[in-house]
């Protein structure tokens, strides 16, 4: 079996492909079905955020290497697009089986490089696996339309065809799920793909790519290039790449959106968030507090759908006391520790940023109900840990409210009515998700109708849709018009060809008409 070195653990990957017996920490690119070492002289360390151990190193792929990956994808395209859809689906069917078999290894890689708990890492893999399962039904998803006899003896039909070479650029926070939002849909539609994983945690995706090839994905259909800004810019500029899927922060996403669309590419860009939970006075106390703690502090707040802000309608104090009690009981430790509730944040810089934003809240008058900034985790003293932190009496003008914190920090606000709460949420620049906690159907329906967010939860804190729906951000959380996965995802990775056919015995001698044809 292939050996992939992760810190002190050496574990194997199920396939017999070319990246076996590696002992080097350097992570190869994947070009035309081969794992190839980059000739770059520049590498970035992939660091275990709980220990600071160097897990691996990714290369800053050179321009020549990037071009060879795109060429491999371009070369693989004609025969892959002509491969029967049933065969392409079967590759996904096998792929989902292999992901299930390798779930523990994949989750361990996620935890080692990203920091989240093993259980949460399994969820990361599982939510991606569901997209692979969905891609197994691509023949139905990709169906065109047919109208018979649009004019006498003439029929029109549309075909959803693949685009060609597509690319994906991924963030660090879901190293398995987000790559799986992208390439399974793209390639099952008949496209070929170049993916750039996050430079912070490429390991899980390397394993997934190997499993996809073991499942039968032909050489060149999926390629991997590592790097940061330069390779991303090269993706935006490349004339052979037709579409880009991006997930990450707003500065990167808007840059990529502008640069790639200026080249005529399709772009879907999922970006930052500030997700609000509105708590009505009639909400079920116990389940609401559980939901707020889980969605605020789970994955150390590093989910784009984390509920980072709570707006209590009415008196917030009794709620805050309960929140505090439950948040204090959470165990912060390395994600590999079985009793850990939350792990570290991704980097020292991320920790510093969280600390700074919390302090800015305090400086502008917020009350620090729980301060996790100076937590020390026994056995993991070097880890980038931040304990659960709660700021109350926060107002919309504060920097800690306006900025995405992306750490285990829950911000508490207060509103006098549901109308006022909705106004606060709608004024925020982001619109990824929003949730209401209530026992009133009237309040829930009003919230659902008036709230400006892509994903709405009603007594559901993290309403990430399953793949038969799409992941739908709004306002500054999304740029583009076709969302990730679901029907929109298939539309994103396909273009429509409309065919008008005429099969009838044409009467001779009717003359030539130069008028615009109309239905007869
Ligand atoms: P990031 O923007 O720093 O990095 C994402 C990718 O873009 C990486 O591959 C990185 O190499 C590249 N990149 C970063 N800056 C770039 C630049 N200036 N030019 C070109 N490429 C650049 O994001 P991150 O820190 O990895 O991820 C966290 C962010 O992602 C948060 O804002 C979070 O809300 C967001 N996110 C959003 C969703 C969603 O679906 N809306 C899902 C997950 C994460």
TrEMBL record:
Stretches assigned to the Aldehyde dehydrogenase domain: 35-499
Gene3D superfamilies in alphabetical order: Aldehyde Dehydrogenase, Chain A, domain 1 (3.40.605.10), Aldehyde Dehydrogenase, Chain A, domain 2 (3.40.309.10)
Pfam families, per the entry: Aldedh (PF00171)
UniProt keyword Ribosomal protein, yes or no: no
GO molecular function, one term: methylmalonate-semialdehyde dehydrogenase (acylating, NAD) activity
Membrane-crossing residue ranges in chain numbering: none
E.C. number: 1.2.1.27
The entry's keywords: NAD, Oxidoreductase
GO-annotated biological processes: L-valine catabolic process; thymine catabolic process
GO cellular component: a single term: mitochondrion
EC class of the enzyme, as a word: oxidoreductase
Similarity comment text for this entry: Belongs to the aldehyde dehydrogenase family.
The protein's name in its UniProt record: methylmalonate-semialdehyde dehydrogenase (CoA acylating)
Lineage: Eukaryota, Viridiplantae, Streptophyta, Embryophyta, Tracheophyta
